[in-house]
Design goal:
This protein starts with a helix and ends with a helix. The model has no long low-confidence stretch (mean pLDDT 91). The chain is mostly helical. It is elongated. The longest helix is centred in the last third of the chain and has 14 residues.
Length: 37
Amino acid sequence: MPWGPILTARAVWTNLCGGIDVTAEIEASLSEEKIAA
């Protein structure tokens, strides 16, 4: 079974519902880079 159409439909649905908030993950990643630098 090809997953492309299924994953595309899921991505469109997620985006129409407002997406996924990844702010915390991005902030954590940026703070780790500052510590390493």
